[in-house]
# Entry
Amino acid sequence: MTTPHFSDDDLRARLKTCLLLPPAGAMRKRGDFDLNPAWHEALDAERKLRPAAVLVAIIERAAGLRVLFTRRADHLSAHPGQVSFPGGRAHEGDIDAVATALRETEEEVGLNREFVRVAGALDPYETGTGFSIKPIVGFVREGFVLSPDASEVAEIFEVPLHFLMDPTNHERHMRVWQGRERHFYAMNFDGHYIWGATAGMLINLYERLQCDVAS
# Structure
């Protein structure tokens, strides 16, 4: 069956419906291990994951829905130069993953939470580096002003949602890392290479938006 290419209006309707529906069988863990199951089997089953959250910020532009991304500063010790959603580790004062995602986004790129309307959440995403990330999806209305933290963010850019939700743009790549093959999802847009956990979360969003909006 050929997957339809959704218009922005259809994507908007699906975001408002599909994210409110519990996935079949309730939420399940996603992660770097989806394409590398042997890695997970080799890990300590009792290892403690560090909680984190990111904001999948969908900006409601006049020209269409667009997703906000950052490119991490090149001097950072963890994942330098990589494309990511704004977000980070949970703090003791955060009441939930939404609070973490909104706080971290404000600190990282200066997006005031008053412009964000939370639509729902994707499945928790486990990384090979030991984080359990909760992706929070939110609509962002226009009028905001960004002020990125230069110590963390090298660049902020947007990608049309319809590009990210088009399966013809979903790639699977492989690299050798620490002597082992690592398979991962990737998407290329206008010179920006979106891969790894960020691309994996976008694949999760794509799968969630296949729900029956008429039900």
